[in-house]
Design brief:
It is a single chain. The protein is mainly β. It is 2% helix and 41% strand. It has 2 helices and 74 strands. The protein is elongated and about 215 Å long. The model is unreliable at 1-22 (pLDDT under 50).
Length: 683
């Protein structure tokens, strides 16, 4: 476009108007220096000046596009349309296994440049790694990246391989193990191909299981070897004030594909530890630490219902020992009594732990033959109280003036023991007492024999008059033919004594017997069957002297049990007038009972046979051992008392060798002597 040149040839008026208008122009320099200018414009065809009202289209440089007009209004430029913008090339294209970035420019437009970078483990195989945005689009092609490949690895045949050793690329992992269970892997357990195409790790081999000498902090190996075979034990020692972490010996052990010392040989500082915070019921003094060195002490303090060290202590001083152990477990334990049923307790309610805690009480029952010593059993620090909970029921011997013990005569009796009594002469009856929980059970009763009121000729009673009189009751009489003559009779065991007569002797009455006579003031009498006299013989006589029978005796129950049994190794001495006999044992024996009593036709005690009444004070011996060509001097015995001796006598012309011919019984065993009778020496 060209600005119009002023026509030089014009009329004056027209020329004047033209000159006036020529002053409203816009210049090229004005555009260059103004705000509308952009270096992307192509200004090569712009003229120096333009008249007002002129429109000028401005082009774009190569690589830019747009539609832009300049309009000269008065003396200023105005614009229409869009300024020049760089052309877009679009996305440059993604490369596999690579990333790109804008090396130049802010967008994918004319003039920008992108650079591609391969991912880790990949390498660029294209000639260039960049692309430029040109007027016609991106130059070149998208670059190509390929994975790095590692070289081939060769291993021994006894190595088990999992993975590809020949065509491994970046990221591939190969794992190794030994085919034999008796071998271990030396080298890498696994290898992988890195980003540079190099194998990471060392190609392994399989060899015999061995361990190397370990480094032991605060300890040292005592026997050093270049290597240790499988199952060998490491001999090591810890430094002073240190101890082995594990009590078990450290052994060379195959572990996985390799080997290790198991347990790991290690030494630790010898300390004693406390559980912090402590268990319930336990306090420590000092309480500020939980780790102590050997020789340090700590006081363990327990609550009321706890114990420590011994069941009686609620506090104790504990010392850390050189082996790292406390002198006793430094923990308070809640006090509980034993759940074992005490002796002679038949049943109780102490089966649950709650019932066995300190100061708790439980109900209980005693076994038969025992009685409770308290209503409840109480758990104390000395176990269950009272102790014992059950006491054996016993009864002391009970004596009665009117009765004798017929069976089971002892000083102390146990529960349910029975004692038979028989009433003495002058009394009637028999009874049995049983030892019970509250003492003797039974009715101890003897009825005294009574006397009927006697009739005495020419005498009258001056005292109380009754039909019968009890033992020791008295009657006073006075003779009617001589009032000054008075006498008193007494009822003794059913028989009147002291009877006098006002003339002659009275009619005789023998209780349990009968009389014959009198003949010339002599009365003869004997006893009924089952009774006997105190005197010798089976009859007796009485004389009438001054109105009183002299020699008149009572009849007593005779021995209806038959012959008194023979007591081996003892003697039986009958007691006159009584149905019992005293037992005396020979020297070296002692009696199990002191007497025999005839009761209801049987000699008592019935629970003992005569052979077992006299028992040896020591274990007797059987007959002595036999000695060839010899006999024992003395009569044969089934048993020999302890400390007794026997002497052997050789047959005629035989002699005792070494002079030994006597042996002694020692508590059931004969002395062991080599008694030998040798034949005579030939002449």
């Amino acid at each position: 476009m060209h600005l119009m040149h002023l026509t030089r040839s014009c009329v004056l008026l027209l020329c004047t108007l033209t000159l006036v208008k020529s002053q409203d122009t816009c210049t090229r320099e004005q555009f260059f220096n103004g705000d509308l200018f952009d270096s992307n414009f192509d200004t090569t065809d712009l003229e120096a000046t333009y008249l007002s009202g002129k429109q000028v289209r401005v082009g774009c440089n190569v690589g830019y596009s747009g539609f832009f007009k300049l309009i000269c209004v008065g003396r200023e430029w105005q614009s229409r349309g869009k300024p020049c913008q760089p052309k877009s090339c679009g996305h440059p294209g993604d490369a596999q296994f690579a990333d790109f970035h804008l090396e130049k420019g802010q967008d994918f437009v004319f003039g920008s440049q992108v650079v591609y970078t391969c991912h880790k483990g990949y390498q660029m195989v294209s000639r260039t790694n960049n692309r430029h945005c040109l007027d016609q689009g991106w130059d070149g092609v998208v670059p190509v990246c390929e994975a790095q490949q590692c070289r081939v690895i060769h291993v021994d045949n006894n190595v088990q391989v999992v993975g590809d050793l020949e065509e491994a690329t970046y990221g591939n992992v190969v794992r190794f193990s030994c085919k034999s269970r008796n071998e271990m892997l030396s080298g890498s357990q696994e290898m992988y191909c890195d980003e540079n195409g190099e194998w990471r790790g060392q190609a392994p081999i399989c060899k015999e299981v061995t361990c190397t000498e370990p480094e032991i902090e605060n300890g040292r190996v005592l026997e050093k070897f270049p290597e240790y075979k499988e199952n060998e034990v490491l001999n090591f020692q810890c430094n002073l004030h240190h101890k082995r972490t594990e009590g078990r010996p450290s052994t060379c052990t195959k572990r996985g594909t390799g080997s290790e010392w198991s347990p790991t040989p290690a030494c630790e500082l010898i300390t004693c530890r406390l559980t912090l915070p402590p268990l319930e019921g336990t306090r420590y003094d000092p309480s500020s630490k939980n780790k102590f060195s050997p020789g340090d002490t700590v006081r363990v303090i327990c609550g009321e219902k706890y114990w420590v060290s011994t069941r009686q202590d609620t506090t104790a001083v504990n010392t850390c020992q050189g082996n790292g152990e406390w002198t006793f477990t430094p923990v308070c334990q809640e006090f509980t009594c034993s759940d074992r049923r005490p002796q002679h307790v038949s049943y109780w309610y102490a089966g649950y732990l709650y019932q066995r805690k300190l100061d708790k009480t439980v109900s209980y029952w005693c076994a038969e033959g025992y009685k409770k010593t308290a209503n409840l059993a109480t758990c104390t620090r000395d176990d269950w109280k009272p102790n014992p909970l059950c006491q054996e029921i016993t009864c002391n011997k009970q004596s009665y003036p009117d009765a004798d013990i017929a069976r089971n005569d002892r000083n102390i009796y146990r529960y349910d023991d029975r004692v038979d009594y028989i009433c003495k002469n002058g009394y009637e009856g028999e009874f049995t007492l049983t030892c019970g929980e509250t003492g003797w059970i039974g009715d101890a009763k003897c009825i005294g024999r009574q006397c009927k009121r006697p009739h005495i000729d020419k005498a009258q009673i001056t005292s109380t008059l009754k039909e019968t009189y009890s033992h020791n009751e008295h009657l006073e009489y006075a003779c009617t033919n001589n009032t000054e003559r008075v006498f008193t009779v007494t009822c003794e065991k059913g028989v009147w004594t002291g009877i006098s007569y006002c003339s002659g002797c009275p009619t005789a009455d023998v209780h349990n017997g009968f009389v014959v006579g009198p003949y010339n003031d002599t009365l003869y009498y004997t006893c009924k069957n089952g009774y006997e006299l105190h005197t010798e013989g089976w009859w007796a006589e009485a004389k009438c002297n001054d109105g009183i029978w002299s020699g008149l005796d009572h009849c007593f129950v005779n021995n209806t049990c038959g012959e008194i049994p023979v007591i081996p190794n003892g003697n039986v001495t009958p007691r006159r007038g009584e149905n019992n006999a005293r037992i005396t044992c020979n020297e070296g024996y002692r009696p199990r009972v002191n007497s025999l009593t005839c009761h209801k036709g049987k000699w008592l005690p019935k629970e003992s046979s005569p052979e077992t009444i006299c028992t040896p004070t020591a274990v007797p011996c059987n007959p002595p051992p036999k000695v060839d060509n010899a006999v024992v001097v003395g009569s044969y015995q089934k048993e020999y008392l302890s400390d007794s001796e026997v002497t052997y006598q050789c047959r005629d012309k035989y002699v005792v060798l070494d002079g030994e011919d006597t042996i002694r019984c020692n508590n059931g065993q004969w002395e062991e002597k080599n008694i030998t009778c040798t034949p005579p020496t030939p002449q």
